[in-house]
Amino acid sequence: MLVWVMTMKTGKWKTYLAFILLTEAVGALAAWLTRDSVAAFQSVPKSALTPPGAVFGVVWTILYALMGVGAARVRLTEPSKARTDGLGLFVLQLIVNFFWSLFFFNLQAYGFSLLWLALLWALILAMMLSFRKADKTAALLQVPYLLWVSFAGYLNFAVWMMKR
User: Fold this and answer.
1) I want to staple 68 with a disulfide (CB 3.0 to 4.6 A). Which of 23, 29, 108, 157 is the partner?
2) CB-based contacts of 120: which residues, under 8 Å, 6+ apart?
3) What is the model's pLDDT at position 91?
4) Do the Cβ atoms of 125 and 148 come closer than 8 Å?
5) Averaged confidence pLDDT in the chain
6) Of 80, 110, 101, 103, nearest to 27 (Cα)?
């Protein structure tokens, strides 16, 4: 709580807000661009472990916020190679994240999407390792994201196998 109050007093909240809004905007744009395809996806065979559709929106909103908070924490550290590399990987993984939805839902390229998701997973891990050098908490905030993308990989694989 004290850290939050100190952040508010020093104006660092603008950095947090900017990064959270950036990540949420990327997620919102991807959701908007895939909205029709996601609705049609309801009829595609899926794993029995697939959560209800409403869960995905809630989970992704939280994950995007955690991504933003982590990136803001790294941005607020002293300039360093770890900070530069971490923020570069943050942007790169966010771009890859955005395009996965388009490949999976709009193009229904399930096999390619699985490979793309493996790339995303590797980028998230690399970002976490880089974040850890600049701010350990920022890296830890990405653990739920990595776990969810791992689960998404299983779900993507299941759809791909069922549609073959």
Assistant:
1) 23
2) 93, 96, 97, 100, 149
3) 98
4) no
5) 94
6) 101
Residue owning tokens 């007093």:
9
> What tens digit of pLDDT does each residue of 31-68 get?
999 999 998 888 888 999 999 989 999 999 999 999 99
Domains in the chain, CATH or no CATH each = 14-36+51-163 (1.20.1260.100)
Phi, psi of 132 (to 5 degrees): -60, -35
What is the secondary structure of 90-143 as a DSSP string? HHHHHHHHHHHHIIIIIS--HHHHHHHHHHHHHHHHHHHHHHHHH-HHHHHTTH
Q: How far apart are CA 75 and CA 127, in angstroms?
A: 13
